[in-house]
């Protein structure tokens, strides 16, 4: 697959992913092998003369003929979109008066620093010297950090560390620069140049691999985007108003060295699909009026490739665009018709297939909104403001699995796990409790369908006080006929939480909407030793867009095992993908959501497998929302009223010690969908441990969910976490995003989000990504108990899974831990695998739901005990 650079070159535009400017006297494309110089490593004084590259018209050579002519072939359509080719005369005033805080750093092929220095302020075009190291095939990075130095000094950093540096665009001094600034007005702009393969010669020259001198021209880091718009008088006459203009899916951060990602469909793109994208502006009211039809801003580069599917302006829509491409959106209302229209314009190098916004370039787009004929233009979307009503009645649980493009309704006062089918937090079974009558329902939060980019998975609400087009309450004061109606649009899936409020605005209950094509099917009928295998096969074949699984331990394979008549989901609760993935976005989609032990409401995990608190959840208007870390909990009831607040108080959780009820029946606080539950598991006390830290007693193992994990003996259960418990398991492999590794290889960690552990001891033995014979557990890490922060040192490496079992400490619960031993503090190639730990319920861990058929288990005395 050709990369962006190659694709753009065929369009007549030269562009390099790392902004390499090699202007010489005919440098060849081919890079010759360098000859090792025995004098390498010596310091030489290199004479430099550094300039600034001319700004480029973003339309440039890749523009379509229509945009160059300044008119659209779709004149007279509902709206016209014109990419304007600005003709500029370069006078030298569009550059800063000098290079502020210039640094030049030299790296070897591995990215380790081998030379360079900070040079301070330098006059553009002046001749000066810098101390570099004699070397061939090295990398050279030149950065003028600007007078206000948004970026810290690069001194002492490896090239990889430089790549990790980022500056939030909205808060940067770059974005405060006037877009028409010249000379000293550009003092705070950052300029840079990365030379990927050059030689530093003994006579103090910088040469290309072919021996040609290299001219040093720094490029402006920021992209300039000008958006102009008109709103036809005819639209106003017909009752339409322009309500909002917004610039969406802009990279949140500037980076000196972009983090590129290889994709099959788009080639090499940057930033990566799991980077943070934000709305740079949303103009409404006075701001929109004062803009007077134009807005010009600085933004970070967003290279989203060339689309072979977008061959005309008409097809330049979300179906054919990269999910993370930057776009402008115009929101048009007609209050009389109760109609809202969204006109979307994807920006880039032309009006058809180029979705790139590149460094040192200026882009100018004009949009003319002519009429409201949305039916014939796929770039315009109608927001249906009709209150949603559905006849698709579903049993009530705390999680509803919905396929994209579907609708449901349910009775909010009922619960499949409640006493006689009622939610006892809201009703007595006969009447609605005081202050629990539902007045209205809201979209509390929702994700987008491509991480921090893409479409909202529930869509836009009508306004802050009216969410009825997405979630609608009917007969809220009638315990029997009350219904909440929910619809979700066609997207690539995600998660949302909807909340029911009383007339005082207090949340009385909330529900998780898990939007995915995944439809798991459990075992049915009376399961015996004769028909079990066929029942498992039938359930797996009936499951859609995924798999249901069984594990290989004695608790699963013995007829008296706790899970003999169960299957378990192939993914974490809230995950949109399962199994080993090969791209970052799908890797993150395996994470699912995180839960505090005993709570029904989820929290998001990580947008990119790191501790970066990227915005990944949004309200009904598409505005970012965050975890509430400030609320002080004192009671369990408050966890119901504040589903987005992270509880940091053990005592509040201890008020409901059996919220998930262990081996007893499923409760109304269980977060799993109808027919599924948080799995219970026997946990092992220290007094029962055998030598080596493992317990082999059949009685415990038959009730232990992860019996046999890490062992050839299916009755073995891990029991503690000290150094005696380090395993080199044969039925667990580590996946690093590229390949599977035996634990004995000592593969300790990966930066790939979606790395994790493959268990091959299920219904077969396979080292393939075969979901019928193996189960994958992504290294999701956790949220800390005291801060709610995502844990850094375990990201992509450790997994924590709750059980529903309660121990003798009301504030604690047991859980499973996969935690591969990292090279910096323990033994490489080992794994800390245990299910005996009892820790604070206020951690945020993953959940994997199991089939809820607890009362079908044998023997009879066990059933009787469970029903007590």
From TrEMBL:
Signal sequence interval, chain numbering: none
Biased composition (Low complexity): 59-74
Residue numbers spanned by region Disordered: 55-74
PROSITE patterns xrefs: PROKAR_LIPOPROTEIN (PS51257)
Domain DUF4906, residue spans: 294-366
Classification via InterPro entries: DUF4906 (IPR032594)
TM annotation in the entry: none
Protein name: DUF4906 domain-containing protein
Species this protein is from: Parabacteroides goldsteinii
